[in-house]
Amino acid sequence: MEKILQIAEAIGHEKGIKPELVMTALKTAFVQTAKRVINSKFNFEAQVDPDTKNMSIVQIITVVEDEDEKLQDEELAPAYMSLTDAREYDDQAEVGDQLQMEHNLEDYGRTAASSLHREMEYHIQRLVEDDVFSKYKAKIGSLVSGRVTRVDAQNATYIEVDEIRAVLPMKSRIKGESFEVGDHIKAVVRRVNMDKENGIQIELSRTSPKFLEELLALEVPEIADGTVIIEKSARIPGERAKIALISTHPQVDAVGATVGVKGVRINAVSQELIGENIDCIEYTTIPELFISRVMSPAIISTVEIIRDEEGEAQKAIITLPADQKSKAIGKSGINIRLASMLTGMNIELVESDTKTTTDEDGNTVIQEEQKESVDALQALFN
């Protein structure tokens, strides 16, 4: 084929693929066509002349001894030639040499042209699919946006994202939200699959903790540039979330920067999440202190970490005043569930003989309850 390099460059430019990859796909198409229309048992190779920019098909034949067993094998014989026969083509031929016999696909008429067209179309399409697959495979956990094109009977939402269509299943949608055709929505790439029947399948999610993290990076410059790092996150979609933050700069308050002035940053994210409440917590490597912060708004007395034989933290026993237990558990157990998800530990609450009061400055403090026995009271009057 004439000017094959120009064709490869044109296809690469149109599809956004490197010309080298296109050239490899075209060579494969030529070889497959040659096997189809000439002989499937021949060993073909596609070669490009850099001067003329033309591609040619050559049959590679290996020279062997006249008595070599490969010449008697029906499957292997087409790829080999006896030394005697080889020297009829080249009197300098030796055992182990590879002879090249050129074939012109144009000599095989319309059958070859039609077959070559199908092969080129197939291999270029596969190349495009592989490129798109690799592109979105690298985007797993990243934020994408697109326009809703369809909502099916199972409430799966189909979204047009760049050059492909992705799906947001009902299970990956925040409770209470609904979409209509034409809506523009954001989500994170949850899974990317490819099979022969359905091609590339991209599944999106709005319930993943990663979606919350990506939205925060979009709203908070300090998170986007790495000054503030989201160490951990946990959420119950549409209800409440907790994020553990750490600052890499001594003059930057991780929680303050994330919340923003008058909560403008965190409120913008909460609005995208259909009013989901977001608790921002300063992360620490001290597990006892971290757990006490994670249990907010409850006031904690003590935290005991139970570890396994390898020293891994498995359970946290939290002692707290009786009037703080409901806060620690939260509505429908949401607070303690999020705390367990964020810390990766089972949490056990133990009530203590203490209560919380407010001091002169308005701060909440824990006081020991004054319990005296009847005998002690009688002793006061004796």
Summarize the structure.
This protein has 382 residues and is α+β, with helices and mostly antiparallel strands. The chain has 12 helices and 17 strands. The protein has 4 domains: 4-129, NusA, N-terminal domain (N Utilization Substance Protein A, Chain:P, domain 4); 139-205, OB fold (Dihydrolipoamide Acetyltransferase, E2P) (Beta Barrel); 208-283, GMP Synthetase, Chain A, domain 3 (2-Layer Sandwich), CATH 3.30.300; 298-382, K homology (KH) domain (GMP Synthetase, Chain A, domain 3, 2-Layer Sandwich), CATH 3.30.300.20.
Features:
382 residues, four-stranded mixed beta sheet, OB fold (Dihydrolipoamide Acetyltransferase, E2P), alpha+beta, GMP Synthetase, Chain A, domain 3, 17 strands, N Utilization Substance Protein A, Chain:P, domain 4, five-stranded antiparallel beta sheet, 34% helix
Verbal overview:
- The chain has 382 residues and is α+β, with helices and mostly antiparallel strands.
- It folds into 4 domains: 4-129, NusA, N-terminal domain (N Utilization Substance Protein A, Chain:P, domain 4, 2-Layer Sandwich), CATH 3.30.1480.10; 139-205, Nucleic acid-binding proteins (OB fold (Dihydrolipoamide Acetyltransferase, E2P)); 208-283, 2-Layer Sandwich (GMP Synthetase, Chain A, domain 3); 298-382, K homology (KH) domain (GMP Synthetase, Chain A, domain 3), CATH 3.30.300.20.
- Helices cover 34% and strands 31% of the residues.
- The protein contains 12 helices and 17 strands.
- The protein has helices spanning 4-15, 19-37, 83-89, 109-137, 209-219, 221-224, 254-259, 264-272, 287-294, 325-329, 334-343, 374-381, and strands at 44-49, 54-64, 80-82, 98-103, 143-151, 157-161, 164-168, 184-195, 199-205, 228-236, 240-247, 277-282, 302-307, 313-321, 346-352, 354-358, 364-368.
- The strands form 5 sheets. The chain has a 5-stranded antiparallel sheet with strand order 7-6-5-8-9.
- Strand 5 and strand 6 (157-161) form a beta hairpin.
- Helix 5 (209-219) crosses helix 8.
